Amino acid sequence: MVCGLTNFMQDETVFPALEAMIPQFGVDIIIFSQLKKWGHWHIAGKDFISLGPASDANGLAWGQLEVDDEKIEFKIMQAEYEGG
Known about the structure:
mainly beta, three-stranded antiparallel β-sheet
């Protein structure tokens, strides 16, 4: 069911179709990385997180999940370099 999930996330007009599938998900956080783009969507009580590249022209990056009052917050962290 997750195959092609990134395609759903590129076009918000299909979010109602995604919402119709959500009861089939037995988890609250769905993590995927088909196109290696960073993203976070909260749809019908579920969090969809797309993982991007660990390294690109901007340097190293990673995703950080935090829970605050049962709400998921997703941050994209970029490594900061000092000197050369």
